[in-house]
Amino acid sequence: MSYGVVAYGTDSKVTFHSNYSSVVYAGQMSVPSGVSPVQPTYTGDHHLALSSSLRDSNYDMGWITQYEITLDVDYMVPFYCPDHDNQDVAIMDIINEGTKWVVNLLFSGTSSQAPDVYAFAPLTELPSSSVTLSDYGIAVYDSGSNLVFTDNKRPLRVDDVVTISHSNSIKTNSKGTCGTSGHSTNTCHVDFTPNQSSTISGSTTNSSSKLYSIVPSAYGGLAYTNSASGTSSCGLFGLISRPWAWSYKSWASFRGVVRHPRNTTNHIAGWEGDFGGAAHQYVQGDCGFSGFLGALIGAFLAVFTGGAALLVISGALAGFVIAGLTTSTTPSLKAYDTDETFDTSNSAKLMITDKTYYGIS
Questions:
Q1: Contact predicate 17/146, CB 8 Å
Q2: pTM above 0.90?
Q3: Where are the domains of the chain?
């Protein structure tokens, strides 16, 4: 630069530069009116109910919630503060709708334990009403008379940057078995609880005041299927046979999440369920007939495998910003036919800062 101001901190890093706008704390994001944390599950044809305890014990489901803030800026960086120690969190996506910014987030724990989320944005794009200059201190403007730094609004201080990668598999141990009875009703659920994770060490000690920003792209799912068919005796003296068949399918989709054990410098990249479902169908033919009349066994599988997300978007996710969810969050909200993972080769950068630096209580 041929003119302007550059200032360095005690760590020899640039504190502000008059050619570039500072990224500053812009406010806490809030949950939109009418939105509550949800655990979407399949409720279509032949579904098996997933109780709250089953969602936790067998499907390892977290809670999906949404935050918003009004900011007329070109970009916004969200940071979350976990509600408690060892909480799994994933920023699922960041959506800009005009002057509104929306964050969809997945978290572990109970529905009342959602993390707090804070927005950081360029100082030069914030309205003057949100920036108060005092009668003393420093204010730096660029050549276009845009405020790029003021010591009244501290710039984003990144204490650590850690590269996070997720494992190529979600679960390697047994899921168990289901659907072998052949009865017309079934309440069995296999175990989709993940057992794969990666531990990455940083240089900053985690604490209750730390803020984290990362948008993992890793997602995937687990699936289980079982079926059988046969005949049973019927008619006078059991001399005639009746055909029967059943089919069972269940699945869970997962997001790559990160947790930050307090009083350590470690970050654990694991998996958390964001959608689950199970279905069982039993059909029985007429006595003396060799085939089935009506729908064929397993026909329902092809129906909800491709459209499972559409069934829950309008129901469980009512009140959410639908445009964002259908374009960004849907890829993981699906039924899986086989165990799969995606984007595990794409690492993500975790940024860490501390809310006390910005006067956030």
A1: no
A2: no
A3: 29-113+161-361
